[in-house]
Structure formats: C-alpha cells, structure tokens
Amino acid sequence: MEKIEHIGIAVKDLNQANKTFQKLLGIHPYKTEVVITENVITSFFEIGESKVELLESSDPNSVIAKFLEKRGEGLHHIAYSVNNIYDEMKRLKTEGFVLINEEPKRGADNKLVCFLHPRDTNGVLMELCQEII
Ligand code: ZN
To answer: Are strands 74-81 and 125-131 parallel, antiparallel or unpaired?
Structure first.
C-alpha cells in the first residue's frame, strides 16, 4: 500500500459539515460528488498528500444511513491507495481478510475501490483504492 489516500467521515448534514471543515482546514472542498450506486453525496478536502471525504446519505436504506443510525457521526473508513487493486485484494484475501466486495467497484473521486470487513481490522472499515486512469 502506498499511503493513506483519504479518511471518510459520516455526517448527517453535508452542507453544515462542509462549513465546519472549511473553517477547520481553511480550504474549500475541491469537489462534491453524488455516488448513485452507494446512495451517498460526498465532498473532498485535500490536505497535503491525503484527503478528507465527508459522506452524507441520500437514501434511508444506504450503508451510511445505517451507520449513522447505529454509531452516529464520525470516522467511517480509512482508504489506502494501492498500485494494483487486484493484486492487493488477492494478497489480503490470502492473509485471511474478508473482502466486502469480491470485485473492485467504482467509487467516488474516480477510483476503483474495495472494502475490507471491519471485523478483521479492529473495528474500522478499510478501503483500498486505485485511481482510474
Ligand atoms: Zn472513501
């Protein structure tokens, strides 16, 4: 794995959270994106080599809505950038980690992504991501 690409934070109100993070970080989000397949609206702030991704649910049945219901706002996942997501998925599977999606899927911010079950990673959802070129 190369680096922490971004940290995902689940929020109830993206507009309000954007304002908070603008004040906190002193910058504006560089993009807001609707991920239709995941029923989320995201915004991204760039901090040096890494990013903060804010995630708001756009559907009461989405993964983020369920997360907010269960655990409230807060850290949702940590994403690592990888050179070859297929190789990394194979490696982690061999190491005994459970992949939530067996095939990489298209995530926000032009990435192929795969999630690892938090049960195997000390309670924090992990995301692998590879830039789509
Ligand atoms: Zn993410």
So the answer is: parallel
- State in Å: Cα 95 to ligand 1 middle: 22
Please state the pTM of the whole predicted model: 0.94
- For residue 88, the CA-to-ligand 1 centroid distance in Å is 17
Average pLDDT, the chain: 96
Instruction: Output the CA 9–ligand 1 centroid distance in Å.
Output: 9
* CA 5 to ligand 1 centroid distance, Å: 8
Q: Kindly list the distances between the CA atom of residue 127 and the CA atoms of 4, 48, 88, 113, in Å, as whole numbers in the listed order.
A: 10, 19, 11, 7
Rounded to the nearest angstrom, the distance between the alpha carbon of 77 and the centre of ligand 1 is 7
What CA–CA distance (Å, rounded) separates 133 from 120? 30
pLDDT exceeds 90 at position 37: no
